[in-house]
Amino acid sequence: TTGASSNSDSSTTVESMEDNPDGGCHIYRNGYYGTGISVVEGILEVNIIQMTSIQMTESQAENSLVDFVVTCQGSLPTDVCTVVSDPTCQVSKSVVCDPIIVTDECLLTIRRAFEEPGTYCINITLGDETSQALASALISVNGGEST
């Protein structure tokens, strides 16, 4: 494109030039185009406000369960993904994605299982058709207890 200018009718004039390698001549094309832009709010912010270990009986203690209470600002999410990684947040151990229904206020509880005690990096992503937002935390899981 060699030049562009705006018209008062919101259309844009586009002038393009192409080289013809065979004949050495130039081809000029002029025209107008228009487009519409839709602005959507999207999910603006995600916060993990609470992490609670779920107490289980000894016979159920194969996995440690932790509830994450999450809030968000902006539009309401339609899905949630949780990535559990090593403490450096570099090596992913598991990814779980689920559809969710949030009708009024963005406040939800996400329950995830941990196979063994240790320290984990948790990334929780809330998404909808047009946006995604992420919150991260480090969690220490100690055989049915978390801190």
Give the key terms:
mainly beta, Immunoglobulin-like, disordered N terminus, 3-stranded antiparallel β-sheet, elongated, 147 residues, 11 strands
Description of the structure:
It is built from no helices and 11 strands. By secondary structure, it is an all-beta fold. It has a domain at 43-141: Immunoglobulin-like, CATH 2.60.40.10. It has a 5-stranded antiparallel beta sheet, with no helix packed on it. A 3-stranded antiparallel beta sheet has the order 1-2-3, with no helix packed on it. β2 (12-19) and β3 (26-33) form a beta hairpin. The termini are far apart.
What is the fold's blueprint, element by element?
Elements: E1 3-6, E2 12-19, E3 26-33, E4 43-54, E5 64-74, E6 79-85, E7 92-99, E8 107-114, E9 118-127, E10 132-142, E11 145-146
Antiparallel strand pairs: 1-2, 2-3, 4-5, 5-8, 6-7, 6-9, 9-10, 10-11
Structural class: mainly beta
Whole-number radius of gyration? Answer: 26 Å
As laid out across the biggest beta sheet, the strand order is: 7-6-9-10-11
Number of DSSP strands? Answer: 11
**Poorly predicted parts:** 1-8
Write down the CATH class of the domain at 43-141. Answer: Mainly Beta
Q: How would a crystallographer describe the biggest sheet?
A: 5 strands, antiparallel
CATH architecture descriptor name of the domain at 43-141: Sandwich
Question: Tell me, what's the shape?
Answer: elongated
Beginning-to-end CA distance, first to last residue: 58 Å
The helix/strand series, from N terminus to C terminus, equals EEEEEEEEEEE
Strand content: over 45%
Counted by DSSP, the helix tally is 0
Mean pLDDT: 82
CATH domain topology of the domain at 43-141: Immunoglobulin-like
